[in-house]
Design goal:
Chain lengths: 419, 419
């Protein structure tokens, strides 16, 4: 079965807006078991839309379109679809009721313009838009030029309207039409180990995975996501199989797994601190406030995060974090004694349960033979102890800051859980 | 003249990698005066490549391809191009010398595999790849099925290799082939005013722009970029015209213009502080370290940034920033007196020339009737005074943090420049 995506919108062709819709749609369709063969981006231009539909329906069985179905003049996808299917726009009661529901939920009266939006091509079925007034359209038809039915789905170009519509009902309907098998995914989030080292360590686990379960490595800077995908006649047994494999994996790499299904470390840590009623502060040198920023990007973080001292100069390390000037002189700012003092002292000064401290050389300048760019010390202070570790990251300033922050948050997570 | 882009790569169709190449290429081509009519993304599949080329060459005059020209087995674009043009791969001396130059510059010997990469379709000219070993290819040919010549350009899919190649020589060569006019762009960076207010204020300026100069609004959260594009027989006079229009604009909105051509506020502020030999610290409540993070994301920021106190709790505001407990009690943390004290005191404690302080309700919780979510106070302390301002941003936590940071950096910029 061939699937393709057509995104309509002049704004995409100017390059001002990156077409994130296509990648998101392809990922969701892939997760649901539908491989996408082609994306096409065209402008709000009748001739180009018609030509794309002509080409697409000869090679593909499912054609998903986005864009050009709004109420303004430059939105011409609906007209082009009428022309392609040799049909006409008619008022559709179901589409109207969907639109009405949207307004009623928001306590706004329906206008004539909105009523006009309930006009859709006669041969299609409307798809409810939970987040907007443009109705989606589902065409399912035999075509003269080819065998078998073709499904055309037209959705809004606004990402959050399209996303809600694709998630439900489009993908479930496609699964119902085309699939006999259930597909189950689970993503395991790991931090602190590179893709190649990780694959070495878990090689034998990977090899023993049942034939119906496959593994994909999805690396990001500082994080590797492991996605297990299982198939089977029904969902429940596959879900259980995957859960069993995760139990086995946890025994092999307990220290690297921090969460599941795209949870972030700052969410996980926030959840743990909230559950325990514990508090946190950070003392940051090389991360320059980035850890505090990650933590405070989570709503409700004021419940457990008291604050931070960003000590970018030695003077601030001495005055605000009570770091011993002799430690700085003898070992340098990027050293175990200094980072330990930073963690210990911020914990005491801010009167918190847990503290993170970082000191390193983010780059591009500041490296020496002994301490090259990418050298980082991290310390975690808990109610019972202070631990510290040295890391060698790379040469890229932005990545060094990011990797230091993720490493520090994962060390904190482990310190909270394992004491 | 019609231009289209074909991106080849299985990884793009899975949705794991967002096709940023197409948007970047379209923007660059647009800036150079070439409108793009279509993007197509296909997999590393001979049949799909051939079909795309077949369709493209009938409707477009310039076809830019990326991807699938590496040395591995799944890179089949070169073979598909040979088949499409009914030609064969031959060793190309110029391509070989380009590859050799790449290795010589890096002090690495050329291998047989690299020699193999100098084999390109007989009818094309090689395009030097400054950042890799895959040669670009330029086909310029009459086609039996249509009138006029068609240009096909095949480039690597690796973004930084493609970008260097498109910038030089591809776009200059296209301009030489197709354009008689010079095109000049200048982007004016503004902060602190929304797109619609801005367009009202500068309406009469916009109207008096010469006919050969056009204006585009490019809004981002907290920032609106104004891009002037001018055309003329030669570059110099157009450049001067644009400079004159910018002088006029500066008189209308001096307080909102902070820079040009995609400079960031943290870069501008860093440059000013460095030039003056001045120092900076921040006291952050609602921004939670984000301002410190922006500042320290700039290499060399340790030269002027001493650090920050992120005071997420009142306790830290009192203990580490010496905020008067009575101010907190009487006015609340989100108030002018508190933010003024924060700025004044961090400046003194950290012994710096300039200081930023922020206190606000980022949301989604914490709002009241009197101080709704999005209410923010910002203060700037300079060697001679403390200024403070109240802002009402929106309901989105992430955007409130971002907008507060940008506003604070621009206030600091103005305080540094205008005293």
């Amino acid at each position: 079965m061939k699937v393709e995506i057509i995104n309509v919108g002049d704004e995409l062709l100017i390059g001002q807006v990156i077409n994130t819709n296509a990648a998101w749609m392809a990922e969701q369709l892939n997760l649901a078991g539908f491989m996408v063969n082609q994306f096409t981006v065209i402008g709000d231009n009748r001739q180009e839309i018609l030509e794309s539909l002509e080409n697409a329906h000869l090679r593909s069985d499912i054609i998903l379109m986005t864009g050009g179905i709004g109420p303004t003049k430059d939105d011409i996808t609906k007209d082009a679809l009428c022309q392609f299917f040799r049909t006409r726009l008619v008022f559709n009661q179901e589409a109207y009721e969907n639109i009405e529901r949207f307004f009623i939920l928001r306590g706004i009266p329906v206008t004539n313009l909105n009523r006009k939006q309930a006009e859709i091509p006669e041969i299609c079925n409307p798809i409810a838009n939970k987040n907007g007034t443009a109705s989606g359209m589902w065409f399912e038809t035999e075509m003269a030029e080819r065998e078998g039915k073709v499904i055309f789905i037209s959705m809004p170009g606004v990402p959050f309207e399209m996303k809600a519509m694709l998630t439900d009902p489009v993908i479930p309907l496609l699964k119902k039409s085309f699939q006999s098998q259930a597909i189950v995914h689970r993503t395991i989030m790991t931090q602190g180990i590179g893709e190649s080292f990780l694959s070495d360590i878990i090689e034998s686990w990977e090899k023993q995975l049942p034939g119906n379960i496959s593994l994909a490595y999805l690396p990001q800077p500082g994080i590797v996501r492991l996605r297990l995908t299982g198939t089977g006649p029904t969902e429940e047994p596959v879900r259980n199989q995957i859960a069993e494999e995760i139990v086995k994996l946890k025994k092999i790499i307990p220290e690297y797994i921090y969460g599941f299904d795209d949870e972030s470390l700052e969410e996980i840590v926030g959840g743990l601190l909230t559950a325990m009623g514990s508090t946190l502060a950070t003392a940051e040198s090389c991360t320059g406030g980035y850890i505090a920023h990650l933590i405070t990007s989570i709503p409700g973080s004021s419940g457990y995060f008291k604050g931070s001292v960003v000590a970018y100069s030695n003077e601030v390390k001495e005055n605000e974090l009570d770091v011993n000037p002799e430690s700085l002189l003898k070992f340098g700012a990027v050293s175990e004694p200094v980072v330990r003092e930073m963690a210990t002292n911020i914990r005491r000064r801010f009167n918190v349960d847990f503290a993170i401290a970082t000191s390193g050389i983010a780059g591009p300048a500041g490296g020496t033979a002994e301490k090259p760019v990418g050298t980082v010390w991290i310390a975690i202070a808990t109610p019972t102890k202070v631990i510290a570790g040295k890391y060698l990251f790379g040469e890229n300033r932005e990545r060094n800051i990011r990797r230091t922050a993720l490493q520090a948050l994962n060390l904190l997570r482990k310190a909270i859980i394992y004491g």
